[in-house]
Amino acid sequence: MVEIDHMNAHILVHFATDDTHTEVPDFPFLCLTVSGGHTQIVVVKDYFDMEVIGKTIDDAAGEAFDKTAKILGLPYPGGPVIDKLAKVGNPNAFSFAKPQIPDLDYSFSGLKTSILYTVRDNLKLNPNFIEENKADLCASVQKTIIDILMNKLVKASKQTGIKTVAIAGGVSANSGLHDAMLAMGEKYHWKVFIPRLSYSTDNAAMVAVAGYFKFLKGEFASQDLVPYARQSLNQ
Q1: 152 lies in a domain?
Q2: Does a structural domain hold residue 171?
Q3: What's 111's domain CATH number?
Q4: pTM here?
Q5: Are 150 and 106 in contact (CB under 8 A)?
Q6: Is 182 a domain residue?
Q7: Do 65 and 25 belong together in one domain?
Q8: Is 230 in contact with 40 (CB distance < 8 Å)?
């Protein structure tokens, strides 16, 4: 039996190669891991030597997408729906709060409150506000979340001097985040790695890849192993 950390597996999916995908990141690289439960900036020094240098102090980016979708009456999970509507909306139509958190940590609770109040106040003036502005709201929310994510990732790259940068986790499927990664890569001369769509959300391949490298190291688990729901890669 092999013990696999869920977020570790998301990161190691970048080493799932085949005939058409042969390039993998060199160590060390930075990985922004973003999902419904996690938002972390990780220095990946080796397959199982990873250091979290920034993380959310409250809500995850994926949770912000899902809560926004709930506020707007959109189905769950909210990320893919918001991403689709954002493509036809104006990302500068609405402004939302961007929390000023020190160092490389994130916070998304204030953003959620800002979105809630914006929608609530405008609904008082126009009961059809959401329906008439749905695409613009989605585009504006998505831009704000991505700006928050990318600002800290750029800061992390400058602080560490690492220019090989990847994303992983469910939110890495977001097309706006893809565009932002490629734009920042061009601006700051990063070598960017974005997982294929089928490897972005939870999948068996990522666990298999992580298990493969554990097997090569001969790291096997005992029968008294117990699962954990939330834990930092640092632990």
Answers
A1: no
A2: yes
A3: 3.30.420.40
A4: 0.94
A5: no
A6: yes
A7: no
A8: no
Q: How far is CA 81 from CA 61, 105, 142, in A?
A: 15, 27, 11
Domain that holds residue 79: 61-147
Residues 123 and 93 in one domain: yes
pLDDT of residue 235: 56
Question: In the numeric block, which tokens belong to residue 77?
Answer: 């999970």
The number of distinct structural domains making up the chain is 2
Burial of 193 (C-beta count, 10 Å sphere; 0-12/13-18/19+): buried
In tens, the pLDDT along 196-229 reads: 999 999 999 999 999 999 999 999 999 998 888 7
Q: Answer yes or no: is 103 within a domain.
A: yes
| Contacts by 127-136, CB closer than 8 A, 24 or more apart | 130/72, 130/73, 133/93, 133/94, 134/72, 134/85, 134/89, 135/85, 135/86, 135/88, 135/89, 135/90, 136/89, 136/90, 136/93, 136/94
